[in-house]
Amino acid sequence: MSLVAGPLAHRLLHAPQAWVAGRWQADVLLEVARDGTWAAVTPDMATPPETAQRLPGPVLPGLVNAHSHAFQRAFAGQAERRDGEHDDFWSWRDRMYGVALRITPEELRSVATTLYRELLAGGYTHVCEFHYLHHAPDGAPYTDRCAMARALAQAAQDTGIGLTVLPVLYERAGFTQPRLRDDQRRFATSVDEVIAMRDTIRGWQLPRVQAGVAIHSLRAARPDSIAELARRCADDAGPVHIHVAEQTGEVDDCVAATGLRPLEWLCANVPLDARWHLVHATHALPGEIEAVARSGAGVVVCPTTEANLGDGLFDLRGWQSAAVPLSIGSDSHVSRQWPRELQLLEYGQRLTHRRRNVGAAPEQGEPSTAQRLFQAVLSGSAAGAGLNEWGLVKGARADAVVLDTRVDALAGVPLERVLDTLVFATDLPAFGEVWVDGRRVR
Questions:
Q1: Per-residue model confidence as pLDDT tens digits over 7-21
Q2: Global pTM value
Q3: How far apart are the C-alpha atoms of 48 and 46, rounded to whole Å?
Q4: Residue range(s) occupied by CATH 2.30.40.10 in the chain
Q5: Where in the chain is the domain with CATH 3.20.20.140?
Q6: Is 183 among the catalytic positions?
Q7: pLDDT digits over 164-216, tens only?
Q8: In terms of Cα–Cα distance, which of 28, 142, 382, 422 is closest to 238?
Q9: 11-61+391-440 falls under which CATH superfamily?
Q10: Is 331 labeled as catalytic in the residue annotation?
Q11: Of these residues, 158, 331, 399, 420, which one is catalytic?
Q12: Catalytic residue among 243, 280, 283, 333
């Protein structure tokens, strides 16, 4: 099934409650324009027009999943055994490459279609693909250089989810390894190729499909190439993503090669701004957090993957205190629902600091951890995807998820505690309806 369609009919939706301007508001009339954006969002409309479609529960904005490797969904759950003395990110990566070396464009479309349906069910309405699986299994380019990216776009069209494809610059195996390993042969790209793929994807002009660029990591791209890509994107509004400071081994290798830690090097050598999104940033010192804050760049945190890989714990309090924009990603897709990501983000802090509700800020009038974290990643969603607006606001794409308050976990819960319960006491997704671009897709 394809959800590509012609012009949308003007539509009115009425929510009993909706998350507008950072809080729950009652009797919200949502007006969908013909271009699939919100034409108006009006609270306190207790008597809506007769033509308005009544939504069956409280409405939240969908979230952007700001970091995804769709092909890794085929590997989720398949590396949870240890056969030797040691297992970490690097040994997991070697096993993951076995999947990367086999998957075809047709298989990728199938895997991504399944994944995107799961992400919609988990409350995401847009996904950013950090896309480095470009070439045929033998490393040769496909005749269609964007065959793998096209498979992702087709899956997005089939399911109705929004998509930002981020072709990745990937040149070498490490700081001291000038070439890729043989099992990385499908990833090889140059700056020219990354820019060309970005422009090709934009040229498709598919509904809900955007494109930006990405750099795999400091270890995987030469400094002169990073500088060139940054220069060539200087006048482009699209997002730029990069893995950085995910593992202590990466930090140590960067210091040995450059004399600087990864975030330190990036802030000193790259003209970061609000278009840049630093994925993971797990191992960050206070001075590095301050430097990122001054740059205007955002950070993408992926709690379930970071936990699954044993990466370390994100400094939530440090990044929150510096007011750095945050977004959320499911990365390797061991989980496909955002409430679980926010739950683990908070629980990691509780275990570290031996305190509860670390993410809350009652002194700022924000006593709810779930509400504060949700609003934070909601606020960071637009920039990560390369969109101008996001949420239940005029001009944003008309995306929304409707909570099913009939599920046992939410039944009878007061509205002001619904997000708390959704994040910390609901095991299964509780989204009864999902709307993207003004159309119901689930």
A1: 566 799 999 999 999
A2: 0.96
A3: 6
A4: 11-61+391-440
A5: 63-385
A6: no
A7: 999 999 999 999 999 999 999 999 999 999 999 999 999 999 999 999 999 99
A8: 382
A9: Urease, subunit C, domain 1 (2.30.40.10)
A10: yes
A11: 331
A12: 280
